[in-house]
Amino acid sequence: MGGGTMSKESMSDYYSAVQLRSDRWSALRVALERLHRESGKASSAKLKTHIGELFDALSLIERYWAFPGITAFDYIRRQFEHGHLEDVSFLVRRVTRALTTGAYRRRSIPLERDASDSEDHDDEAILSPEARALSKHYFEVLIVDNVTEQQERFLKDSMRAMRRPEDPFIYEPVVVPSLEDALIGVLFNHNIQAIVVRPGLSLESHADLPILKRYLDRAGGEDAIDEIAPENYGPELCRLVARVRPELDAYLVTDRSVEDIAGLDLGICRRVFYNQEDFMELHLNILRGVQARYKTPFFTALKEYSKQPTGVFHAMPISRGKSISRSHWIQDMGAFYGPNIFLAETSATSGGLDSLLEPHGPIKEAQELAARAFGSKQTFFATNGTSTCNKIVVQALVRPGDIVLVDRDCHKSHHYGMVLAGAQVRYLDSYPLNEYSMYGAVPIREIKHQLLKLKAAGKLDQVRMLLLTNCTFDGVVYNVERVMEECLAIKPDLIFLWDEAWFAFARFGPTYRHRTGMSAANNLRERLRSQAHAKAYEKQQAKLKDADDATLLKTQLLPPPAARVRVYTTQSTHKTLTSLRQGSMIHVNDQDFKGEVEASFHEAYMTHTSTSPNYQIIASLDVGRRQVELEGFELVQRQVEAAMSMRRAISTHPLLRKYFRVLTAGDMIPAEYRASGVESYYDSEQGWTDTWDCWEKDEFVLDATRVTLAVGGTGWDGDTFKTQILMDKYGIQINKTSRNTVLFMTNIGTTRSSVAYLIEVLVEIAKGLDDLLDDASRMERLAFDRRVKNLMQDLPPLPDFSRFHEAFCLDPETGEGDIRAAFFLAYDENNCDYMELDGGIEAAMDAGREVVSASFIIPYPPGFPILVPGQTVSREILAFMRALDVNEIHGYRAELGLRVFTDEALVGQTRKLATAAE
Description:
This protein is of the alpha/beta class.
């Protein structure tokens, strides 16, 4: 690779090439304006050199984008070299403005200046949302072929000549010469929606820019690419693109015979064209492919329904807005929401609409499109949140008496789901982060240990499901595929439920995708079918013959080829993607779903789903799916960039570092789970770390879109900092805190301006603390230091799950408990008592009494049960509860104390359990 340079220092400032491109254009605009003002001064020579360097940097980047295009870019550069500063300044200003506003996506931006041109021409602010919605959608098509400039012009002109007024979209072609350039292009240019692979492509790129070469690692690395035979460049490129951006459409133009192509893995290739220049057919296929993703069957049906004149003689007076438009007192509601939301409101399932409970029309089609988008075999919509999705899956799959392994710090809906299903629950402990009062995730070794213990006890046939949270609220992400393959090696028919409530966006980020449940399930299914895996499995089995548990625990186990891949994920679409509140999905990738689960799943779905679901939520799920298929890659990329910018800004600001600290992967994931050795995503000395390496190797990784900020150095606990400082004073809203941290979650709507505002606020807070401490007396300073020490050092250790009392646990050795029996035993007030947290409980323990919780005790934060019905209260749990300084503890009544079972109730339940066992 050769051509072009950029300093290491400037490169280290940027996490992504998209950010680099945007800032380089802005820097070029500023430098040209300054040069125009200072023309003739001594500083102008240095400015010209700087501008030349900016042009050099951009020349390596612009070849991957259709606007302004490398031809127009070279024209602007030549104008600069010829000294036409005023024209160059105007053109750069126009390009920068069009890139910033996205104007080039809605109309042609002329790059030749004449007297009629004005700055107002570029002002997109005058366009209404309605006007933008009516404009044709724009995208770019990547053509991969090593051609001359003349041939490139021919290709582009031929594609543009196919445009017709009736085309639903408009696109511009981008031509790159090599396989490597194509991989860089699809990962760098988010406008690309289709790729045309022609037979003349070469292998290597001539771009010499480290930030661009990073993208090759995400597509398998240069070493893997170098091994491709020349005759397979085209098919292999389609396969590699499928790995990183599976939503794209590829079209392969080849001069090889049908026999040579047949049987090859063509990845995302939609159609093969055999050595022809049929540009119209290619053009129509490109539009048809994008149209397939743009389609929103239910949203479209709902829009059409809203236009129909109807007479309403069913439930819902608000339907068609009649109860509002005829009201004298609630007109403000109609004015606030507008008419369409009410015109689209109905309880009917006819007239082109559909039933969520028995979908046969547009809802069914919308769910099928969602399955395609998220990589599942079946997808089901939910309009009452992921809490309900979790209960549906558990009820559909778990029968009374089945053993379920659950991470103890999972969402409360799972615990209640265990009650409803009558499961025997074996709680798994996550590794603790005592210094930040939060938990991480459950190590693979702990999961395998419990499975092997159950196997030794002869109970493996009773084990039904493993339920884990991926990713956790704090951003710890599992190596999903490895967890599943090692568990299947012990129990080949184990079912997995991955709670991905906070991870719906991950499907559309190449780095994130392979750690999602659906992607891992598809990879595992493909691998189990391969001959290579069968040989590796046989080899390992021979090696592990008669191996003890200690050996099995330290070995990365392989599943048998006949293992069944049975994976479910639940996602809160509304939490991280575009959907109205409570819009969620259930994704299924279960080889035994149709034969074993479909009927029970339908019954569970009917049990928990309203017969009057909100059609607006369903429509938003449909539209949200369209959005991520067409621009999810771009939005997730920008989301990660925003979070990374936040990390860098806080970590490098000298004043902020006095009071705040961004927790790194090294802080939140112990070294034993980080084989890559990556400590931090950003280091002030080394710059950015390419996260691809750790996301490939490590047992746990940290979701970069979540920034956990340690705030104990301010003297405020996390809850106080959240409510009294961020929310009340500055209007900044966040979800999660711990005793000494607050969590900032970026999302696909987060802008760089939002990040800038947050940094400004944190600086203002830090300056205020500086002023406060400058004026503090000696005693005030001692009090401040004591508060900081209390928050950052004197922290109670996080308690592990203690155990179920013998009244609810048949086998103390394996430890699974009947949470349902304990839950309903507490319905009778005669079986319960209250004990004071200070004094009463500890005195009872000292007297030898086993204190057993009769309720779920859920403090916010951390937001999961530290006690469940039937669990014994340990001294560690008691100490942790006393140390909690939160305002909200569900299940605990401060005026009465902790609700516990009476000794008589426990004795009676123990007898009942013993009788049942006999």
